Every structure is written in structure tokens, then in C-alpha cells.
């Protein structure tokens, strides 16, 4: 996410390296570089100019503390300005009414249906009763797609494949929700490949008829300035409440994320970073600014882990670790959990300093494949008692998994190191526990 922009900003800050203080001259050079980086990221020129003028003004107006270098101070100022540019504070959805209606709008292919599923899953995990409604009256495939997603996440999908009246379908869905105790109805609508009058009239009609408490506009961030223009057009007609930026996993520039708020004056409420149902985040401008500047986003990482990890599983695992019984089956299920959390590269980028280190590297779920193949080629006995895996077993496992003995050996060594570490942690933890008992 935003790799190009992060790299260029980093370069801009370097122009201040070795400078003892901020002056008109050195700040001018850096700010020019920052502006260029923003324009290269497909940020609207006017927005880029406004922001960089402000950065310059702030930089010259602030006293540099002795402990802070001009470079550090500028990073801080740019962080604040990027945060402001993206709206400053997180804005929540409004869910009012019984049921509360959430209307999803956007062009075809922007990711509406996928997002509807993700939002339903997120709300369900917060303990809410949700009904998904398929209102794409043109593409029967879209109804099937939503049904498949609904099944996957365990949320009911309301559809009337023969009915060509979207308002009627949605109203029936609301009635159905009332009679089945569902508190939130998410209405997925039809899109077109480009803005067209009929689509606009239809979505306007739906909004008038349903009076949703939240209307979201979904847009593909990879389309850069086009995304911003489409948002503007939709907003003029629909006056939506919030933006959902999708496909941020493939967006190395970030122009849409940075410009939408200033141009459209509507908050970004969610971001989507992959095709999996778990790849959704509530949008926090400050955390995003941190990520862009390579400062990581540990808070989101922890929240994501909490959302994905099963507490019961975690307790069981903890017990196994304490008894030093962590085995290859546990290892495998941990890999599965991590994969469920979403795009690996984005996840790693949330660790401070990691984003830069990972630049250009290709990390995806496939990176785990050889490890999984090796573990899956082990017998049940071998997984539970790794000590029995001798030379001939290693050869069999390598042959079975299509890997080399070297790779099997590496994994065995990593696993042994991991266990050693766990043992050590247990000991330290145990000592502490004893000490606290003695107090
Ligand atoms: P709709 O026509 O607006 O309903 O769009 P879909 O939900 O069908 O999405 C279009 C395509 O984009 C599908 O192949 C999705 O899997 C894919 N997609 C949706 N969101 C994301 C995302 O955040 N990242 C990536 N990489 N793909 C996405």
C-alpha cells in the first residue's frame, strides 16, 4: 500500500539530513520534493499545493527543540498535515432505525458486493443481526455472488431474482428483516461501468424510497483521480455519508485516499485491502498517515489480531506452550490464522520500519506454501512428536512435499529454535509468577 509515495517522501526528508536548523532555503527544497511526491501519487495539484504551503508555513513557524532534528520535525508536521488531509478524525457510520438501512452505491467492479459481505461479517462479529439484500436487477450473477458470500460468513441474503423493481425488493427485504428480528439491512445495488443517467436515477430513487441511515459510496482506489471525479459526481446526486476505498492492496500511489476528503468533503469510513472477507478496516486518518510515513500501525495490527483470533484456541495454545507441547499441528493452525488476517505484505507494513524493508519484495500467501506442504507430508505421529523425525523420515517428507531436504532441515531447525525460545519464556515467566506469589 502506498509504497511509491512512502519512498518518495522518505527521499524528500533526506534532503534535510545534516542540517542543523530549518531555514527558508532548506525547507523550500524539501517542500518542493514533497509536493512532487504528492503529485506523482496522483494527488490533485491544487490539494498538493495547499498542503505543502501549509507544511512550509508550519515548519518555519515552529521552534526546533534541541532534541529534534529538522528532519524529524518535518516528518511530524507532514504526518499532521496528511492526517488533516484525510479528514483528521475517524467518522463512524450512523445506524439508526429498526432496521437500520445501509445503502451501498458505486460503479460496477468497484467492489460493492465484496464490501457488502465484509461489512456484514464485521457487524455480525460485533454481535449484530444483519440481513444482506441483493438489489442488482441486471446481473443475476451478482445475486449468486452475494449468496455465496452470505453462506461463507453465515449471514442471510434476501433476493428476488425475478423481480426487476429494486425499490420493491429492498422494501420487501426490510419487511423480512422486521419479521425475523434483523437490526441492520445492507442493500447492495447495481452499478454500471461508467456514470450514466439511468443508474443515477435508480440509486437516487432507492435512497428516497428507503431513507437509509447510512449511504456509502464504494470506489476503486487504484483509479486515482478518476476515483475522486466519480466520487464528486455521485456525491452531487446522492449526497452520500461516507466513502469506502477498495483495492488499497494494489494501490502503490494513494492519490484517491489523499484527495477525496478535500475535494468531496465526505469522510472515508472504510478501506478494503484484499479479496478475503477479513480484509476490511475502519479508516483512521492518523493511522493511515503513520503507515504512509513508514511509522507502522501497531494499533491496527493488534485490533486485527484480536478480531481474527479465536479466544478459546488462544487459551488452548497458551496451555500447550506452557507445557512445552507446541507441535507442528499448532504451527499449521497458526499459519492459517495469520493468513486469515489479510494481505501479508500490508500486515508486515504495520510494523514500524518494516514497510521500507519490504519494498519490492514479493510476499504473499504463497510464501507459506512450502512450509505447509512439508508439515502436511508428515504423519500424525511426526507432527505431534517432531523429535522422531530422523534422516530417512526427512527424505520421505521432502519427496512427499516436493521440497528439498535442505528446506525440511531449515524448517526443523526453525521449529526447534521456536520451541527453545518458548521454553525460555516459560522459565522467565514462571520465575516472575513465583516472585509475585511470594510478595
Ligand atoms: P461490484 O461490481 O462493485 O459488486 O464489485 P465486486 O465486489 O464484484 O468486485 C469486483 C472485483 O474486485 C472482484 O474480483 C473482487 O474480488 C475484487 N475486489 C473487491 N475488493 C477488493 C480489494 O480490496 N482488493 C482486491 N485486490 N480485490 C478486490
Largest sheet: 8 strands, mixed
The side-by-side strand order for the widest beta sheet comes to 3-2-4-1-5-6-7-8
The CATH class of the largest domain turns out to be Alpha Beta
Helix content: 55-70%
Count of discrete domains: 3
Q: Which residues sit in consecutive blocks of at least 5 with pLDDT less than 50?
A: 430-439
Indicate the radius of gyration in whole angstroms.
Answer: 26 Å
Q: What's the CATH superfamily of the largest domain, by name?
A: P-loop containing nucleotide triphosphate hydrolases
Beta-strand proportion: 5-15%
Question: How far from one another are the termini?
Answer: 49 Å
> What's the CATH architecture name of the largest domain?
3-Layer(aba) Sandwich
Bound molecules: guanosine-5'-diphosphate
Average pLDDT across residues?
85
Count of individual beta strands: 8
Class by SSE composition: alpha/beta
The CATH topology of the largest domain comes to: Rossmann fold
Order of helices and strands: HHHHEHEHEHEHEHEHEEHHHHHHHHHH
Question: What spatial form do the alpha-carbon principal axes imply?
Answer: flat
Q: How many helical stretches? A: 20
Subcellular location: Cytoplasm
Subunit structure: Part of the signal recognition particle protein translocation system, which is composed of SRP and FtsY.
Pfam families: SRP54 (PF00448), SRP54_N (PF02881), SRP_SPB (PF02978)
Domain SRP54-type proteins GTP-binding: 267-280
Amino acid at each position: 500500500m502506498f509504497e511509491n509515495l512512502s519512498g518518495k517522501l522518505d527521499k524528500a526528508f533526506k534532503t534535510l539530513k545534516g542540517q542543523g536548523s530549518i531555514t527558508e532555503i532548506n525547507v523550500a527544497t524539501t517542500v518542493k520534493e514533497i509536493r512532487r511526491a504528492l503529485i506523482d501519487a496522483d494527488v490533485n495539484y491544487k490539494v498538493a499545493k495547499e498542503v505543502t504551503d501549509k507544511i512550509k508555513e508550519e515548519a518555519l513557524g515552529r521552534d526546533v527543540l534541541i532534541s529534534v532534528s529538522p528532519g524529524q520535525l518535518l516528518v511530524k508536521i507532514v504526518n499532521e498535515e496528511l492526517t488533516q488531509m484525510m479528514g483528521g478524525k475517524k467518522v463512524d457510520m450512523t445506524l439508526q432505525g429498526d432496521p437500520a438501512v445501509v445503502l451501498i452505491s458505486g460503479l460496477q467492479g468497484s467492489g460493492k458486493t465484496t464490501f457488502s459481505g465484509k461489512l456484514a461479517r464485521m457487524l455480525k462479529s460485533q454481535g449484530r443481526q444483519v440481513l444482506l439484500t441483493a438489489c442488482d436487477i441486471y446481473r443475476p450473477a451478482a445475486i449468486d455472488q452475494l449468496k455465496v458470500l452470505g453462506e461463507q460468513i453465515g449471514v442471510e441474503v434476501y433476493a428476488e431474482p425475478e423481480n426487476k423493481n429494486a425499490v420493491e425488493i429492498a422494501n420487501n427485504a426490510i419487511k423480512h428483516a422486521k419479521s425475523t428480528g434483523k437490526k441492520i439491512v445492507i442493500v447492495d445495488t447495481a452499478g454500471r461501468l461508467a456514470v450514466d443517467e439511468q443508474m443515477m436515477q435508480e440509486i437516487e430513487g432507492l435512497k428516497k424510497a428507503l431513507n437509509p441511515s447510512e449511504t456509502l459510496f464504494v470506489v476503486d482506489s487504484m483509479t486515482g483521480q478518476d476515483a475522486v471525479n466519480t466520487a464528486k459526481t455521485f456525491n452531487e446526486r446522492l449526497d452520500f455519508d461516507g466513502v469506502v476505498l477498495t483495492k488499497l492492496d494494489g494501490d502503490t500511489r494513494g492519490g484517491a485516499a489523499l484527495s477525496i476528503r478535500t475535494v468531496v468533503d465526505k469522510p472515508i469510513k472504510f478501506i478494503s485491502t484484499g479479496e478475503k472477507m477479513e480484509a476490511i478496516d475502519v479508516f483512521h486518518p492518523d493511522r493511515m498517515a503513520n503507515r504512509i510515513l513508514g511509522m507502522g500501525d501497531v494499533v491496527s495490527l493488534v485490533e486485527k489480531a484480536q478480531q481474527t483470533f479465536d479466544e478459546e484456541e488462544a487459551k488452548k495454545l497458551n496451555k500447550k506452550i506452557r507445557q512445552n507441547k507446541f507441535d507442528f499441528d499448532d504451527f499449521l493452525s497458526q499459519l492459517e490464522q495469520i493468513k486469515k488476517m489479510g494481505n501479508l505484505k500490508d500486515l508486515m507494513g504495520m510494523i514500524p520500519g518494516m514497510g521500507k524493508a519490504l519494498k519490492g519484495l514479493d510476499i504473499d500467501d504463497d510464501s507459506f506454501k512450502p512450509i505447509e506442504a512439508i508439515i502436511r507430508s508428515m504423519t500424525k505421529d511426526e507432527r505431534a512428536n517432531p523429535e522422531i523425525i530422523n534422516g530417512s523420515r526427512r527424505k520421505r517428507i521432502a519427496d512427499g512435499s516436493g521440497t528439498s531436504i535442505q528446506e525440511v532441515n531449515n524448517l526443523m531447525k526453525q521449529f526447534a529454535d521456536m520451541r527453545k525460545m518458548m521454553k525460555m519464556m516459560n522459565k522467565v515467566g514462571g520465575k516472575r509468577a513465583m516472585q509475585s506469589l511470594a510478595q
